[in-house]
Amino acid sequence: MFYNTETGDFGLTEGDVRSYFAQSEFLIVWPEPFAPYEPFVAVIAAEKPTHNLATHKVVEIAPKDTSDGWLQQWKVVKLTQDELAQIEAERLAAEQAAKDAARITVTKRQVLLALFLRKGIKADQIDAVINAIPDETQRYMARVDWDGAAAIESDSQTVGMLSQALGLTEAEMPDLFEFAQAL
Length: 183
Fold this sequence. Notes:
It is a single chain. The two termini are 61 Å apart. The chain has helices spanning 14-22, 81-102, 108-119, 123-131, 136-147, 157-165, 172-182; strands spanning 2-4, 10-12, 40-44, 56-66, 69-78, 105-107, 151-153. Helix 3 (108-119) crosses helix 7 (172-182). With 183 residues, the protein is α+β, with helices and mostly antiparallel strands. Strand 1 and strand 2 form a beta hairpin.
């Protein structure tokens, strides 16, 4: 990478340097290996400093003239509120994408057969769990969700509540739904 000592532009490529001189009326003969002519200087790459990726970023600043040559410089700066919000939005989107990818959707017939074949649980036991919900609104919503569903999603709230009440662990559910898919 190269630095223009006149303009202060840094992080320039060989192509940037060549194009600067391409507009010249003189024929430029470039040495091999490539070395820039003034006002450009080669910059010695330096590793970025370690930092907390959740709160800071590293930005390149103007190189420093040292006894060994021009040395690349870095500065650790705090992320802006917009950058923090973007990181959080990306994290939430990735989390949702992972949930969506893990979701298994089956018919109610498939889940009822899987529950019976794997765990001996019958439809009347599910009805009993729903009927035992003390809050009328929650009971009604669970009933509508269970009875009115053509498809059952492995990560639905109703499935979570029913599986817990029926003594199924969270670890068993993916296996159960994968089995249901095969039915």
